[in-house]
Design goal:
Elements lengths: L3 H8 L17 E4 L2 E7 L19 H22 L7 E12 L7 H16 L6 E7 L7 E9 L1
Parallel strand pairs: 3-4
Antiparallel strand pairs: 1-2, 2-5, 3-5
Helix pairs in contact: 2-3
Length: about 150
């Protein structure tokens, strides 16, 4: 049976990509004391890299908004894996952290982040409203973004 988040994703025409595996010495999700901490997720769709480059150089702001949404779908895929397939165990989205790989003069990181912030509210209602940070940076790797998350879970 599909979770409420998955039903809403389907209504929006979105699907979760396969959950990636950690490449280095970390876990994709750590659950401790009722909170799930999700490691930074790049905008991957399985092994495909639909977005490569810096925002404001190789990637437009509009493409960056799509990239952060894909990172968000990867976050939810990681959560589904960590919660034994049951996204209904998510109580709320507590915080999102956005690292936007951008040109030195790009000031739109918060505007790019809004795409995923808005999607979380579309998926979870008031439980999707969260604290966040959005910073421009160099890296990670050649991805335009990496997004980390904290969820309250049961």
């Amino acid at each position: 049976m599909a979770s409420r988040i998955e039903v809403r994703l389907s209504e929006l025409g979105l699907t979760l990509p396969p959950a990636g595996t950690a490449v280095f010495s970390y876990q994709p999700v750590v659950i401790a004391q009722g909170f799930a901490f999700v490691a930074g997720q790049p905008p991957l769709n399985g092994s495909q890299q639909p977005f490569i480059g810096r925002v404001g150089v190789e990637i437009s702001e509009a493409e960056a908004r799509e990239a952060v949404k894909l990172s968000g779908l990867n976050i939810l895929a990681q959560m589904k894996s960590a919660l034994d397939g049951d996204l209904d165990r998510i109580v709320r989205c507590v915080k999102l952290g956005f690292f936007i790989n951008s040109a030195g003069d790009f000031r739109g990181a918060p505007l790019v982040a809004n795409a995923l912030s808005d999607l979380m509210v579309e998926l979870m209602g008031d439980a999707g409203r969260h604290a966040r940070f959005a910073v421009g940076t160099v890296g990670p790797m050649d991805f335009p973004c990496s997004v980390e998350a904290i969820f309250q879970v049961r």
